[in-house]
Each structure stands twice: as C-alpha cells, then as structure tokens.
Amino acid sequence: MIVNSFAHMISTKPVDRYTRPEFTENGPLAIDFGRHPILESIHNDFVANNIFLTEASNMAIVMGPNMSGKSTYLQQVCLIVILAQVGCYVPEKCLLRQFCMMETRNLSLLTAAKSKLSEAKKQYDQMVENKQLELSRHLKEISQRNDQAINHIKRKYELENMEIVNKEKEKVRYDFLADKAIAEIEAKCGQKIEECKEEQRQQLMRIQDEHTLLVTQMKQEHDKRQASLIAEHNEQLKRTQLQAENELREKTMFMRNDHEAQIKALRCELEDECQKLEEELHLQKSKEDRQRALLQLQWKVMSDKPKEDQEVNSKQVDLCFNLFVCVCLQMDAIFANFHVGIPLVVWFDILHLSFGRHSWGNEKTFLVYLNVLL
C-alpha cells in the first residue's frame, strides 16, 4: 500500500519533478535541487536545497534565525535518503549515493553482530546456571536463617509481653502515686494561693494608703503652687496696670500738650484774622461815616429848596435810594467774604441818618422800604 501510494503521488507529478536515484561504490551523497515531498504538495513555491557530503567532509553546519527552514532542511535530506533506500523516486534532479560499500559494510557488521550474539547467548546460559545454583544455596541458607530468626523473634515477643505487663503494673502504681501526689500538691497550692491572696490584700491596703497620702501631698503642693502662681499673676497684673496707666498718662500729657499747642496756634490765627477783620470794619465804618456826612449835607441842601422843587427832587431821592441799596448790597457781599454779617441796627441807623423819617412819608412806608431792603 505504501509503495502504491508513492507510485500514485509520483505519477500525478510532472516528469522532471521526481528522478530515479543513482548508487555508486565510492561516490558521495550529492542532492541537487532537493525538495520536501510533503511540504512541496502543500506549498507550491517551495525553495529547493542542495547538499554534498563525502568521507572527508561528512558533516554540515546548518545556521539561521528562527522559522528559517533549518529543521525542514534536515527532514528533507532524511526523507530523500529513506525514499532512495526503499527504491522510490525522489523529489530532486540528481542523487548519487555510495551503496555497494555500504552494503558490504552492513553485511560484515551483521556477521560480527551474529557472532557476538551467539557468544553472549552462551555466556548468558552459563551465567543463568551459575545464578540458579547460587540461588538454591542462598535459599537453603535463608530458610535456616529464617527458622533461627523466627525462634529469636518469638523469644523477643514473649520477653516484650512480660515487660509490657510489668510496665502496666508499674504504670498503675505510678498513676496511684501520681494522683496522691497531685492531690497533695493541689492542697498545698490552695494554701499558698490563699496566703498569696492575703498578702496581696495587705499590699493593696498599703498601696491605697500610700496613694491617698501621695494624693493629699500632691493636692497640697498643687494648692501652694496655685496660690503662688495666683500671687505672681496678680503682681504681674498690677505691674502691667501701672505700666499701662503710666503710658496712658504720658500719652494723655503728650496729646494734651499737642492739643494746647494746636489751640494756641489756632487762637493766634483767629486773633490775626480778627485783627484784620476789625481793621477792615474800622475802614468800612470810616467810609460809612463819610458817606453818611455826605448824605446829610445833601438832605440839608434839599430841605432849603422850595416845595415845588421837592417833587422834582423826589425822583432824585429815589435814584439815590437805589444807588444806596446797590452800595449796601456790595458791602454785604464784602462782609460775606469775611464770614461776617452786617447787623440790623447798622442798617437802621444808616437809613435813619441818611434819609430821615420825614422823607419817606409815614412810619409804615418807612418799614416797608426797610423790609424790602433787608
């Protein structure tokens, strides 16, 4: 079946793809354009490889990176050699192999192996016989030894049983003694525990007394320290209060002196301004006196004229009155610049002395004019 499958595979391939291998006596192993028979059927673009081995150089080093085809190359050479030995066509252009020498060498090796095998068989048979004899002798010795060992083991077993019984008896006695000793120890331990408890109670009482004494002492010391700290704190407060009072006094004195100096400066400035205002008022009064004198002279002149001329001059008086009002308004503006108002008495005196009550008619008209002027 295998040969038929190979024949079928070769018959389906082209003629130049598979060739008949050639065997020579002294020829080398030469493969030209060899291919892997299985991978070639899977991959159409298989890359062919060559190899050339002789007796002088019967080794080839295959190197390359991973997945470069090193193992495929080795499998290809092995499969081609096996197919050639079987008698099949191989996937290459040319195959030369040294066959006759290999056949004679294989025959010589086969005869040598047969002779070695017969010698080994004889040696093995002799060795088996010797082993059987030794085995029978050893079995006899072992049976004798087994009997002796069994007797010895029986004796040992009996002795061990006796020892176990004695040990059990001793164990019962020891258990009784141990229970008695444990009971005595427990009683002693109970007494010791009670004694320890009493000692601990006494120690606790002592410790509590010492603790109370220490607490009272610490309270007294704390009270003393607190009293001393309070006294120191009060002294510090007094000192700080005195310092603060002194600082306040100094600050108040300084501020008072500064305030007095400012007040003096303001007084001097006000006195200077008052002097200036008094001087200006004096000048203004002198001017008013002059104007008053002039007005009196005018009234005297007008009183000497006849009554016919008085009607004509009444118009002149009205004009003079208007002029006087303008002058008074200017004076008021001047006094307003100095933040000083003209008293009402001055206005009344000016009107009374300048024009006279008789020139205004009755008293009602005089008051009307005065209200208008004010």
From TrEMBL:
Listed SMART domains: MUTSac
Name a biological process GO annotation: mismatch repair
Where is coiled-coil annotated?
110-202, 230-276
Q: Which InterPro entries match?
A: DNA_mismatch_repair_MutS_C, MutS, P-loop_NTPase
Keywords from the UniProt entry: ATP-binding, Coiled coil, DNA-binding, Nucleotide-binding
* Short name of any one Pfam family annotated for the protein: MutS_V
GO function terms (MF aspect) = ATP binding; ATP-dependent DNA damage sensor activity; mismatched DNA binding
Name the source's superkingdom: Eukaryota
Which SUPFAM superfamilies is this protein grouped with? P-loop containing nucleoside triphosphate hydrolases
Q: Where is the DNA mismatch repair proteins mutS family domain?
A: 57-173
Q: Which family does it belong to?
A: Belongs to the DNA mismatch repair MutS family.
Report the PANTHER family cross-referenced here: DNA MISMATCH REPAIR PROTEIN MUTS FAMILY MEMBER, MUTS PROTEIN HOMOLOG 4
Its recorded name reads DNA mismatch repair proteins mutS family domain-containing protein
| Native organism | Glycine max (Soybean)
